[in-house]
Write a structure and sequence with these properties.
Two copies of one chain form a homodimer.
Chain A: H1 18-32, E1 64-65, H2 68-73, H3 80-87, E2 97-99, H4 104-117, E3 120-124, E4 143-147, E5 154-158, E6 163-167, H5 172-179, E7 184-185, H6 198-204, E8 221-228, E9 231-234, H7 248-251, E10 260-267, E11 269-270, E12 274-282, H8 285-297, E13 304-308, H9 310-317, E14 324-332, H10 338-350, E15 361-362, H11 371-392, E16 398-404, H12 412-431, E17 435-444, E18 447-457, H13 463-480, H14 496-502, H15 505-518
Helix pairs in contact in A: 8-10, 12-13
C-alpha cells in the first residue's frame, strides 16, 4: 500500500523531485526578482514527536498505532498553515494514538475509552481539511485520532431507487470504483476528491461537482448513521420528509463534534451519456456574473456554471487577461442536452457573452475540439492539478491560499470589492504585492459562491504570521459584507471566530446543548466549530 | 373583513347552504343504501366555552381578545377530527386568550408574560393544521394562542437576487398579491394556500406546488427570523453555506416549539411565461409509477409530476377507473418548455404510457384544448375544491381523511400494499366498507410521496372512534413499512407516537435539549412534536 506524504498533498511517491523544486525556485526568482534556493524536503527520519502521553489497553492494540509517521500524518490537514508547519517539521501537538477501527464495535470501544478518560476523540476521514478540522486541541491531556479508512465499502446498491449504502471511510475514487459496475456514480468531486472520504464530506458539508441546484453533499444524503457517545443516531431512508426538523441536517456540518459517521445511504446518479459544454467570454467579471445569474435563475440547472475572472481565465485557460470566462456544462444519463446548452448559450449571449456556434460542444465530440472547448478542458485539468502544485514551492516563502464564501447577488459587487481590497492591501503590506483572483465555484438563483485565490512572496520563516494577517483581513471583510465565512471548506478551528459572529446567537447555544446531550464528557473533537 | 367559519373550511360566507347539504345527504343515502338527513349546521350563538382562566394585563388588552368566537376559531385546525368536534360544538379546551401582536415587541411581551406565568404560548398562522399543530394542551392552566395575522407584509423585494423579505403572518394570496407587481411569485401552493401563512409553512415544512426538485418550503428559505423566549434567532441571508449545521433547518419543522417565526427572506421566482403539460395514461398504478420514476430520475425536474391511481383518475379526471393518470407539467419564466415536455413524454411512453401528440399542451394554448389536456385542468380544479367539499357532508357520519408519507422506490410496492390493506380492513371493520385511493403528490429520484385518501360511512356520533382506529392502522403500516409518518402534513399532536418511533433516539434527546435552552420555561407549544 502506498503511503501518504506527511507534508505534501498526495502520496510519498508523488512528492516533487529536487529538480522540479529547483525549477520552481528559478521561476519564482525570475517572477519576483529575488534569488531563491529550494530547501531540502523533509523526510520521515527527521520527525521528532512528543512521546504518546497515554497507554493503550491491550484490547485496542490490534487496531491502534502510536507510530511516529502515523501520528505525524494525522497531525495536520492540507491548508497553507498545515503545509508550512509540516514542511518545517513543526509537530508540537500530535495525536497520542491513531485508531483504525475495523467495525462499529471498535468505534464504540474507542469512544467509551476516550469518554472514560477524558481523551479527545477526533474523527479523521481523508485528511484534506484546510480549516484545522481534525487538529488536536492544545489543552488536552490525551488525543486519539480515529481514522475511518477501514470503513471503505459500498455495502448495498439499490438500482431502482438509485441509492447506495456506503461506508463513511470510503475515499472518492474507491467509492466510484464500486459504483461503476452498476452504471452509477455519486458524482461528488471536490478538489480533494482523491484524499477525502464520504464521512468527511458529510461532516463538513462538502461542495461538489454540481455548480447549480444540488451543490453540497447535503442534498445527496438519503440517511446517515452516526455513532455518538450516547448511542447510535440513525435516520430512516427517505426521499423526503416533513416530520420535525431534519435529523440529517444536524449531522451535516457537525464536523465530528457530535459523533462519528459510519455510513450513509446516498442518492446516486446514472453515469452521464449525454454531455454539452460551452466556454463563453465576457468583457468583465461583472458582465460574466450577469450571464451566470441569468442562467441559474432560468433553472436550466447546468452541472457546470463556473465563472473565472480575467486573472483566472488567463492563468487556467490561456485567455487574454482582460476577459472573463464562463464555463457551462450539462450532462445527463437519460436525455440529450443539446437544447439545454442552446438555451443556456442564448441567455449567456443576451447578457453580453461571446461564443462561436462551433465552440459549443455536444456529446461525443469533446476531446476532438479546440478553441474555447479546449479552454474548458484546460480549466478542468488545472483544477485537479492545483493541490499538487503547491508541493513544489513549499519552503520558498510563498504565501498563498484560497478564501471562499457565498453572498446574495445584490451584495456581491460590494463583497467582491471589499475582499479584493482587503487581500491586496494585506499582500502589499506583508509581501510587497501579490495577486488576487476570483472564480465562482457554485452559483444559486439568489447568489454566487465566490472563491478567491491570493498569492505573494513572503519571507521564509515568517510565512505563517504573514498568512494570518492576510487571512484575518479577508475574513473580516467577508463577515462585514454579509457573506458566510465558508461555503464549502467548513469551520474547523480556523474559521471559528467568524463563525461565532455569523451564526444566530440562540442557535449557538442550541448546538452546545445538543453536544452536551449526545457527548456528555465533551470528548468529540473539542474546540472545533464551537467552544463549550 | 370577512370572518372565518369556526367549523367549516373557509369563510362564514362560504359555508354550505341547507340545500347543498340536503342534496349531499340524498347522494350519500343513494350511494350507501341508507337514509341520511342533513343535521343543522352550528352557529356562533350555540358556542358555550369555558370562561378564560387567566387575566390579561392592561398593557396587552389592545391586541388580545377573550371573545368566544375568537377562542373557538383558534381551538381547532381542519383535520377530520377537528371538523367533527367543531361541528358538534365540542370545545372543552379552548385557548384562554387570542393575542394578535402587531410588532415584534408585542410578540416578545406575550412570550415574556407566558414564560413568567407558565402559560402555554401557541403560535397560530392560518389555522389549517390537520395534525393538532396548535391545539391547546389539556394539562395547562392557561393558554395563549398567538395569531400572527398582523404580520402580513412583504417588506422588501430584491429583484436582482430574486428574493423577498416577507412577514410570517402573510397568507398565501396576500403575499402573491404583493409579489405580482414585481413580476415575481413564491409559487408555494399547498392545498391550504388560501388559509395558511408563510410562518406556518416554514414551521411545518409545508409541501408546495413543485412536485419535483424543490418540493418543501425548506428549499425556498434564504434566511429566517424567529423570536424565542431566550432572544432572536436570525440567520444571515445566504444563497448557500457550509458553516456548521444549518440554523434554518432547525427552525423548519420546529412547529412552534422553539419560538415564533416573524419573517423570512424567501427565494422567489419569475412568473411563468412558458408552460407545457401532458396527461399520460397507464394501464396500472405500478406502470405509472415506473413512468414517474424515470422522469424524475432523468432530472428534467417538471413542476408537476403527479400520478393518480385508477380510482383517483376516475374521480378527479373522468378516466375509466382502470387506468392511472400521470400529470406532467413544466413552466418557466425564462425559457421555452417545448423540448422539456417532449423529452418527458418520450420517457413516459418508454415506460408504457399512452398519450396522443395532440394532447401535449404547450404554452398559450391551455384552456382551449380538450381531451387529456382537459383532464389536467379537471384535476387542478378538483384539488382546490376538495377542502370545501368536506363542509357539505359534516355531521352525516362520513369518515374520511388523507394519510401521506414518502418512501424509497424499492420499498414503495410493499408500503402501498400494506397501507391499502390496513385502511381497507379497518374501513371494513368500522364502516362496512369504503374506498381507498392514492396519488403521488411529489416524486423524488429515490422515491415517491404517496398520498392516500380513504372514505367510508360510519355511525353519526361515533365518527371519531372509527376514524382513530383507521388512522392508527394506516400509521402503523407506514412506520412498519419504512415510511415517514408525514411528508408534508407535519407531526403536531396527532403523529407524535409514530414520530417518536421514527426519529433517531439521540436526535430526539437533542431536540429536547435545544428546547430547554431556548425556551427554559417550556411554554412554547407544549406537547406538540415531542414531550419533554
Amino acid at each position: 500500500m502506498q503511503r501518504r506524504s506527511f507534508w505534501a498533498w498526495g502520496l510519498e511517491s508523488e512528492e516533487p523531485t529536487l529538480q522540479e523544486r529547483q525549477e520552481a525556485a528559478a521561476e519564482l526568482s525570475r517572477r519576483y526578482g529575488v534569488s531563491l534556493v529550494a530547501p531540502p524536503t523533509p523526510v520521515e527520519t527527521d520527525l521528532q514527536l512528543r512521546p504518546p502521553r497515554i497507554t493503550l489497553p491491550a484490547s485496542m492494540e490490534p487496531f491502534c498505532s502510536t507510530d511516529t509517521y502515523d501520528r505525524a500524518v494525522h497531525s495536520y490537514g492540507r491548508s497553507f498553515r498545515d503545509r508550512v508547519r509540516a514542511f518545517n517539521l513543526h509537530f508540537p501537538n500530535p495525536p497520542d494514538v491513531v485508531a483504525r477501527p475495523r467495525n462499529e464495535q471498535e468505534v464504540e470501544q474507542v469512544l467509551e475509552w476516550c469518554s472514560g478518560h477524558g481523551y479527545a476523540a477526533i474523527p479523521y476521514g481523508g485528511g484534506s481539511s484546510t480549516v484545522g478540522g481534525f487538529e488536536p486541541p492544545a489543552d488536552s491531556d490525551g488525543v486519539v485520532t480515529i481514522d475511518m479508512a477501514a470503513f471503505d465499502w459500498v455495502l448495498e446498491v439499490d438500482d431502482v431507487s438509485r441509492a447506495a449504502r456506503i461506508q463513511a471511510g470510503s475515499y472518492g475514487p474507491a467509492l466510484e470504483d464500486q459504483l461503476r459496475p452498476h452504471g452509477l456514480t455519486l458524482r461528488h468531486f471536490p478538489q480533494s476528491f482523491q484524499y477525502s472520504t464520504l464521512g468527511g464530506w458529510i461532516a463538513t458539508r462538502s461542495g461538489g461537482h454540481y455548480a447549480t441546484n444540488h451543490t453540497h453533499i447535503d442534498d445527496f444524503v438519503e440517511s446517515a448513521r452516526m455513532i455518538t457517545p450516547s448511542g447510535v443516531w440513525e435516520s430512516r431512508r427517505l426521499p423526503g420528509s416533513g416530520a420535525g426538523p431534519s435529523p440529517d441536517r444536524l449531522v451535516m456540518g457537525s464536523e465530528g463534534t457530535l459523533g462519528i459517521i459510519t455510513e450513509a445511504w446516498m442518492r446516486v446518479q446514472a453515469r452521464p451519456r449525454y454531455r454539452a459544454s460551452a466556454g463563453v467570454t465576457y468583457p468583465s467579471f461583472e458582465a460574466g456574473a450577469d450571464g451566470a445569474r441569468h442562467i441559474v435563475q432560468s433553472k436550466l440547472w447546468p452541472a457546470n456554471c463556473r465563472l473565472l475572472d480575467p486573472g483566472e481565465a488567463q492563468a487556467a485557460a490561456g485567455l487574454d487577461g482582460a476577459q472573463a470566462l464562463l464555463v457551462i456544462g450539462f450532462e445527463s444519463g437519460d436525455v440529450p442536452q443539446d437544447e439545454a446548452i442552446r438555451q443556456a448559450v442564448k441567455l449567456a449571449r443576451e447578457a453580453g457573452g461571446a461564443i462561436n456556434d462551433d465552440d459549443i460542444l455536444v456529446s461525443g465530440d469533446a476531446g476532438t475540439r479546440t478553441g474555447r472547448g479546449g479552454a474548458v478542458g484546460a480549466w478542468r485539468d488545472s483544477f485537479l492539478r492545483a493541490p499538487y502544485q503547491k508541493n513544489v514551492t513549499s519552503g520558498m516563502g510563498v504565501v498563498e491560499e484560497t478564501v471562499e464564501t457565498a453572498i446574495t447577488w445584490d451584495r456581491w459587487p460590494q463583497l467582491d470589492g471589499a475582499v479584493r481590497e482587503a487581500l491586496q492591501s494585506a499582500l502589499d503590506r506583508m509581501c510587497r504585492g501579490g495577486t488576487v483572483t476570483c472564480r465562482f465555484t457554485h452559483v444559486y438563483p439568489d447568489g454566487p459562491a465566490p472563491y478567491f485565490t491570493f498569492s505573494g512572496l513572503g519571507r521564509v520563516g515568517a510565512e505563517l504570521e504573514m498568512y494570518e494577517e492576510i487571512k484575518q483581513a479577508a475574513s473580516d471583510a467577508i463577515i462585514a459584507s454579509g457573506g458566510t465565512i465558508t461555503h464549502h471548506h467548513a469551520v474547523g478551528r480556523l474559521h471559528k471566530p467568524w463563525y461565532e459572529e455569523q451564526r444566530p446567537g440562540p442557535f449557538g447555544e442550541a448546538l452546545k446543548a445538543v453536544k452536551r446531550t449526545v457527548d456528555p464528557s465533551g470528548v468529540m473533537n473539542p474546540g472545533v466549530l464551537f467552544d463549550l
